[in-house]
Amino acid sequence: MCALCGRELKHKYKPKDEWQIEGYLCSDCHIEKMKEFASRPSQQQKQEEPDHCAVCKAELGDVAVKARWQWEMEPGTLLCQPCFNKKEAEYTKRLNFCATCGAKMGFIRYNPKPAWKIKGQMCRKCWDARNSQGK
C-alpha cells in the first residue's frame, strides 16, 4: 500500500530521506513529491545565496558575473565586474605566455612536471632548461 494515498502498489518507489516518509509510494505520489521538493529551494541553497563578490567581498547589487569553470573556483561563484576582469586577464596571461620567462607561446606548449610546482605552461626553451637541471 502507498504510504500517502493508501492505494495498492503495482510498482514500489522508495521516497528520498529528506521527504521523511516511511514506506513506499505509488507512481503518482512519487511524482508529486518530486515536483514539490524540486520547486522549493533547499535550506542550504537559501543560506548560500551570495550577495558579495567571492574575491573582494564587495556587495554585488545588480551586476554579478559567474566565474568561469577554468579558473578552478567553486561552481556558481559570483564575482563583481572588476574582479572578473582581473581573473580573466590572469587566465589569459597564464594560457598565452610562458610561466617562467613570459615569452608569447607558440602552437606547441609544454606542461611542467608536477614536481616543479609551476602553474601554467612553458615554452620549449624553459622546459628543456628546467628538465636538464633535474638530471
Question: Nutshell version of this structure?
Answer:
The protein is mainly alpha-helical. The chain has helices at about 25-40, 45, 80-95, 125-135, and strands at about 65, 80. It folds into two domains: about 1-50, no CATH class; about 50-135, no CATH class.
Structural write-up:
This protein has a two-stranded antiparallel sheet with strand order 1-2. With 135 residues, the chain is mostly helical. The protein has 4 helices and 2 strands. Residues 43-47 have low confidence and may be disordered. It folds into 2 domains: 1-48, no CATH class; 49-133, no CATH class. 11% of the residues are buried.
Range of strand content? under 5%
The overall pLDDT, averaged over residues, is: 83
Contiguous helical run count: 4
Task: Indicate the structural class.
Answer: mainly alpha
Blueprint of the fold:
Layout: H1 27-39, H2 43-47, E1 65-66, E2 78-79, H3 81-96, H4 124-133
Antiparallel strand pairs: 1-2
Task: Offer a few descriptive terms.
135 residues, mainly alpha, 2 domains, two-stranded antiparallel ribbon, 4 helices
